[in-house]
């Protein structure tokens, strides 16, 4: 903000005023020369180690010569750790450590994700953003509110919305020869609609079709379902009920415990062979830098493989690699003929001649990893430090240090984001996201008012992440490993740290009581560790109890 010739700004809530600012000075130059914020300069290009200090100051980072704009960070620590940790609006500088690999260059370079800006800004177009075509109809599911019951009939209240119903589609409308099939998985198949018996609360019974989505949604809420539980046993709504009544599923073969890999044998046989097609000596650089990879959709490829298990990135990269091999096979013989006639030729000449001789310069490959390529181990470790407010049960994550094995990262910039995102998602699982059900097993935590997800305040105040380069992996795509899902489990460190904080609070609080049955170290600490659970386990069921204890202690001292 410019006020009467002065530049006024704040860093970490500290106010600065500077006058006579040269308008041509860049922000980085200004902060270093005038505001006297200094950061250590990295030896760019001197090695493969990459070190970033990030702070709560946003920046558009690029990665020339193994560095981020040439500097380890733009702002240093200001103030003590104690002051900053107790400020809810401050995020401490954190580290992102990456060891680059040139084995498959340019694969392995930290490249910004395609579409990152439009996704982060909300400009990305999703299905719900596409305007409905003319005369489009809309549907809304009608769900069962009972976990185990016979369906005797479905009617709709007479309202404006119900009068807009064009059709109610149920099992009765499945064509002859068709199947009532919703999804198929290892544990078996689920029906699309319940037929005459509901098997769980929330099971789809049918779809209301109306002219608008609003009318469809309103009409679905006007459904009256007639149930009967005659001759039915009580439903099983918990693991304890299932064990008590010996109700178990057979374990499907794909989930059996298997020994994965032979570590000594793998180390002995590793040959570090680079698999890449070459047109020139630096074929990877010359080819990949000149190949345009289009967005994967049903226009470019009519089918797509299974995307679970963090396989999408490797599938895409292997498909691109194989497509490049196809292009190389088409161009190689032409290149040899041209060089016999003209001597060494450039890439531009080769492509120009290929175009004139009707060589197909586009290729597509459909590639899905086989089962053996999925059988490998991911390694990672994390340690977290938390602070628990014993009066409210609120948990603040002060610091997390995390190391994760990505094999040889296909894109360190994306992998870092995936790892950090998965960890924060794991924080939600271990600490916040509680699924609440009513007595019939129907989920009632159906919105953010009752179902709490991670927010920006959930992120550790200091979050240090290191990518571990574990070398060559023969069955992995370019020696890479998944980073999208496994790091979620490392957030268990936050839950464990909270448990230790609770144990310390119990030791302090329960030592002031005369209850001989009070247990300090032994307690059940379920997931998620929500605020009410943490508060209760700390020994303070309510603030009043704490105040009573506090008051009685002071009275004894005064006496």
TrEMBL record:
SUPFAM superfamilies: 2Fe-2S ferredoxin-like (SSF54292), CO dehydrogenase molybdoprotein N-domain-like (SSF54665), Molybdenum cofactor-binding domain (SSF56003). Keywords: Molybdenum, Oxidoreductase. Residues 121-231 form the Aldehyde oxidase/xanthine dehydrogenase a/b hammerhead domain. Coiled coil: none annotated. It comes from the Eukaryota. GO terms for molecular function: iron ion binding; iron-sulfur cluster binding; oxidoreductase activity. SMART domains: Ald_Xan_dh_C. Gene3D superfamilies: 3.10.20.30, Aldehyde oxidase/xanthine dehydrogenase, a/b hammerhead (3.90.1170.50), Aldehyde oxidase/xanthine dehydrogenase, molybdopterin binding domain (3.30.365.10). PANTHER family: ALDEHYDE OXIDASE 1-RELATED, XANTHINE DEHYDROGENASE. This is Indole-3-acetaldehyde oxidase-like isoform X4. It comes from Canna indica (Indian-shot).
